[in-house]
Design goal:
212 residues; SH3 type barrels; three-stranded antiparallel beta sheet; 11 strands
Amino acid sequence: MEFTNAECLGTLILQKEVIKQLSIYKPCRDNRKIHHISSQVISPKILSVANLSCYECDECLFDDNTKCTNSEYCGERRVLQMEYMNRKERDSNDYMYENESVSDLVTIGSVVAVLADDDEYDYYLMKVSKVPFQLERVENDDWGNTFPVGANVVRGYYYNRWKQNPFKYELARRRVAIVYSVAIRYITDIEPRDSISVRECVHENILESMES
């Protein structure tokens, strides 16, 4: 089937209108942790979301993801209602995205990848226990690092990598770690358990983020 110029123009206008409508909504909280998003027919501001996407069961393949048979792994579908931005928020929206860093999206319990200055590691994995904050005094962490007054940092616990398997990690919960907020390069979708595994695709995404 070939499209006429009029049909192509109509599609382009429709796409621009959709983008214009979406730009009036506030960003979803924890949006980098959400891998599955679908809109509802009843309203463009009603979304169905889940932590992970499913590409295997028949229900999801035919867009009936409310009955996903892999929900135990992908997470239960939940309804999220978008909120409108007021005029002041819309005017500052571009500025906000230009100045947003990965650390601004970190929440307590996030498993994040931290830039490593280490010959053996490309990155460290860390479970966040306190979101970015500014130090009011000089602080030392349990790994021998010192941070000055006024530093913007994140507090948490590192994961130790298994020697036998580089994709498996154990939480070092007895040693508090502090890192500069700018050192956080990637927020994973990994559940913050004491023992975790990193999928190869996540590992590759982290490595890519370290180069930016």
